[in-house]
Design brief:
Number of strands: 4
Helix content: 40-55%
InterPro entries: WH-like_DNA-bd_sf, WH_DNA-bd_sf
Shape: globular
Number of domains: 1
Distance between the termini: 10 Å
CATH topology: Arc Repressor Mutant, subunit A
CATH class: Mainly Alpha
Radius of gyration: 12 Å
Largest sheet: 2 strands, antiparallel
Number of helices: 4
Order of helices and strands: HEEHHEEH
């Protein structure tokens, strides 16, 4: 993980973790990590991850597929990471 993450907040860390852990599934870049796995990588609590993911989804930075624990970083989320030069 990028060393700059020690200087950013949990919301940014989660967005980067989702992006860095994507797999190609059915032609889409999907992060298969569940909330506990994301929490372990941040590190923070699962409840905090749940709250931040909701904020990211509501803001249009991340989409959640109907399958539990499947997240897609949207073009808006990619744009934020490019502006931060973390991608």
């Amino acid at each position: 993980m990028n060393e700059i993450l020690g200087f950013v907040n949990e919301k940014t860390k989660i967005l980067v973790i989702l992006k860095e852990n994507q797999l190609q599934i059915d032609g889409k870049s999907i992060c298969p990590l569940n909330q506990q796995e994301i929490a372990n990588l941040v590190p923070c609590g699962k409840l905090k991850v749940n709250q931040i993911l909701k904020e990211l989804i509501d803001g249009g930075y991340v989409e959640m597929l109907h399958t539990k624990g499947r997240y897609i970083v949207t073009s808006k989320g990619d744009g934020v990471l490019k502006k931060l030069s973390l991608q």
